[in-house]
Amino acid sequence: MFGSGYFTTPPVVKNLIIINVLFYLAETILPASASNALISHLALFPWGSGHFEAYQLVTYMFLHDWQTITHLFFNMFALWMFGRVLEYDLGSKRFLTFYMVSGIGAGLLQLLVNWGEVQYLIAQVESGVGDPSLMSRISALISAPSVGASGAVFGILLGFGMMHPNSVIMLLIPPIPVKAKYFVIIYGLIELFLGVSGRASGVAHFAHVGGMLWGFLLLWLWKRQGKIYY
After folding, report:
1. Which of 12, 58, 129, 199 has the most CB atoms lying inside 10 A of its own CB?
2. Looking at residue 137, what is its pLDDT?
């Protein structure tokens, strides 16, 4: 469907997977002190935490939850599955730009939403109408770092759906075929709902939405400029 090259792994996707795996190995194999140092310096910390650095908007994408390999596996599988096609479509240089912009944009939206939620809770506490437990929620929001390539991967998923809207994706649960354009729309709406509703806490749903948003904007811009066609 995408030519014989579809079954090979182009250089940017391959190297991104290698880098992510190496960081994961570092997190799991190094002594606890070194592993904790990686997180404390390279994970994306919220504004107001006292630990935020601008470079973390890049480095957080290469860290994953070391306590379970599933976080890394599913991100890398999706990167390999859909990223190969996009790299052949866009070219390696433009694909890398797309990946990084999606990931950085995901981090920015997550930071913005986190800051807005913290300010809202602080206002409730100061007004005296909030529950006393709000202070612990504020503390958790300010101190919790974000890690993972999910934001960039969601951008890739969005890009695949835009450039190959009628390609069929076979779902695992339930095992039914869905066209890519519908899969992306449904997945995006689910992430937006989970982010707004606060369900499935512990997952940076707005980072996923942010990756898709920035991916869409970048592809739209390139199309207007005549650099890509779909």
Report:
1. 12
2. 83
Q: What is the pLDDT confidence band of residue 92, given thresholds at 50, 70 and 90?
A: very high
Q: pLDDT digits over 146-198, tens only?
A: 999 999 999 999 999 999 999 988 877 678 888 988 988 888 888 888 777 66
Quickly list H helices, 9-145: 11-29, 32-42, 56-59, 70-90, 92-127, 134-143
Q: Does any domain span residue 119? A: yes
Statement: the pTM of the whole predicted model exceeds 0.85: yes
pLDDT the model gives residue 43: 96
- DSSP class per residue in 31-69: -HHHHHHHHHHHSBPPTTSS---TTHHHHGGG---TT-T
Cβ proximity of 181 and 161 under 8 Å = yes
**CA–CA gap between residue 167 and residue 171 (Å, rounded):** 13
Residue 140 has pLDDT above 90, yes or no: no
Whether 134 is in a domain gets the answer: yes
Distances (CA, A) of 67 to 32, 72, 201: 12, 10, 17
Contacts of 194 (CB under 8 A, 6+ apart): 200, 203, 205
Residue 201 confidence (pLDDT) above 70: no
* Dist CA 215 CA 153 (whole Å): 10
Give the structural domain span for 8: 4-224
The rounded Cα 99 to chain-centroid distance in angstroms is 10
Do the domain assignments include residue 229?
Answer: no
CATH number, domain with residue 196: 1.20.1540.10
Strand partners, 177: 170
Would you say residue 230 lies in a domain? no
